[in-house]
Write a structure and sequence with these properties.
This protein is an alpha/beta fold and about 400 residues long. Helix content is about 55%, strand content about 15%. Strands 6-7-8-3-9-10 form a 6-stranded mixed β-sheet, with helices on both faces. It has a 4-stranded antiparallel β-sheet with strand order 2-1-4-5, with helices on one face. The radius of gyration is 41 Å and the shape is globular. The structure holds adenosine-5'-triphosphate and magnesium ion (MG). Magnesium ion binds near residues 46 and 166.
Length: about 400
């Protein structure tokens, strides 16, 4: 089953005289669980092909289907969700967020998907690319190759069904490069993931099941079960404009190349000049894109920094609220303690008052009995007054205590 399919996909950047056709009616499928390398000269449309296939760029014409969904029919939010759930992308320029550490960069796709990054999954992805000991480093504290490996770990961490990798070994030495290619190969062989990888390196391409060649935005042949020597030979033929050996897709271009060989040397020189001018235009385009990319990255970083600042502000506000709540709770607890104390004192006072009353009543009783015995019942009212006075005096004190 094809998990990605491009049908007559064209992509033109700009308009009028400055328009650049980066892809020109490319029709191509990628089978689920396959490993494809995309090769071609600088400016031939490899990155554009990957970005259109991944739904990061919308084609000017043609259709792209990803995991059964026609991307042109999806709104931006649905497209974002599909991308998040289905694909991983290693950018040619890495696109790491400079303010985040390696492990935070790796955990980012999980966070964006609304999951808390599992420390173990993040550590495993960094370990897989040999960077377990650089988890706390920021991109500026890492070499180019290490940054590239962080970008690879970030694309691995979600175990995407399709992994697009734009020159993932471009900045790596041969040892690191072999390790990364080994990982990619095992993702396909052991987990059935699909990989589409741009590379300029025939040795890297030889790890794939198939190589797809691009020239000037057009498909210029494919090669199954590639080995490095055959890939290198095809690239040389492609650069010379001779694509006869490349296969079916290259046949029409081969005809053009043969015609070209029969033209005069003056035409060839003019062609060379045109190619040089094209090269310079592409280089200028590349520089503009790099500047654009940097602007975007700076924009992203600023947004991230802003978000972080806002998050810190919110956290601080939450902490303040928590402190205030704790303070209020403490005050309430204090009040409760004080109230209990007061109640206890009141109860004590009441007890004392009752005791006093009882005693007074007892004394009054005995006095009354004595008086009665001596002078009769006329002084009884005075004795009752003493009992009442002792009782209310006690409650008066309790009243003051409870007001504290
Ligand atoms: N955003 C853009 N705006 C204008 N032109 C663009 C843009 N992106 C790509 N291009 C142009 O489209 C063509 C193909 O570019 P692309 O980046 O796909 O090439 P590539 O094959 O990946 O090259 P490289 O090997 O140098 O990375 C180039 O001529 C390039 O200048
Ligand atoms: Mg590129």
């Amino acid at each position: 089953m094809e998990i990605v399919r491009l049908t007559a996909v064209s992509k033109t950047f700009g308009t009028g005289a400055g328009a650049v056709t980066a892809l020109d009616k490319v029709t191509l499928g990628f089978a689920e669980g396959s490993f494809t390398a995309v090769m071609g000269a600088s400016g031939s449309g490899k990155s554009t092909l990957l970005q259109c296939a991944a739904g990061l760029e919308r084609p000017t014409a043609g259709a792209v289907s990803l995991a059964g969904a026609d991307l042109s029919r999806l709104r931006e939010s649905a497209l974002t969700r599909l991308r998040r759930e289905t694909i991983g992308f290693v950018f040619q320029s890495y696109n790491l967020l400079p303010a985040l550490t390696a492990e935070q960069n790796v955990g980012l796709p999980l966070r964006l998907a609304g999951h808390r990054p599992h420390a173990r999954a993040v550590a495993a992805a960094l370990d897989a690319v040999g960077l377990g000991d650089r988890a706390r480093h920021r991109p500026a504290e890492l070499s180019g190759g290490q940054q590239q490996r962080v970008a690879i770990a970030r694309a691995l961490v979600t175990a995407p069904r399709v992994l697009f990798a734009d020159e993932p070994t471009g900045a790596l030495d041969s040892t690191a490069s072999r390790a990364v290619l080994g990982i990619l190969r095992s993702l396909v062989d052991d987990r059935g993931q699909t990989i589409v990888m741009v590379t300029h390196d025939p040795i890297a391409a030889a790890h794939a099941d198939r190589v797809v060649f691009l020239a000037d935005g057009r498909l210029a042949g494919t090669l199954d079960h590639p080995d490095a020597a055959t890939v290198a030979a095809h690239l040389t033929a492609l650069e010379a404009g001779d694509t006869e050996t490349v296969g079916d897709h290259g046949t029409s271009r081969a005809g053009g190349a043969m015609e070209a060989r029969t033209t005069s040397s003056a035409t060839l020189t003019a062609d060379g000049t045109t190619r040089a001018a094209d090269g310079m235009t592409r280089a200028a385009d590349g520089t503009t894109r790099a500047a654009d990319g940097m602007t975007r990255t700076v924009g992203d970083t600023t947004r991230t920094a802003d978000d972080a600042t806002r998050a810190v502000g919110a956290a601080a506000r939450t902490a303040d609220d928590a402190t205030r709540a704790v303070g209020a709770a403490a005050r309430t607890a204090d009040d409760a303690t004080r109230a209990v104390g007061a109640a206890a004192r009141t109860a004590d006072d009441a007890t004392r008052a009752v005791d006093g009353g009882t005693r007074a009543a007892g004394e009054a009783g005995s006095a009354r009995r004595g008086e009665a015995a001596r002078v009769g019942g006329r002084r009884e009212g005075a004795a009752d007054g003493r009992v009442g006075g002792a009782g209310w005096g006690g409650f008066g004190l309790a009243g003051k205590a409870s007001a504290c």
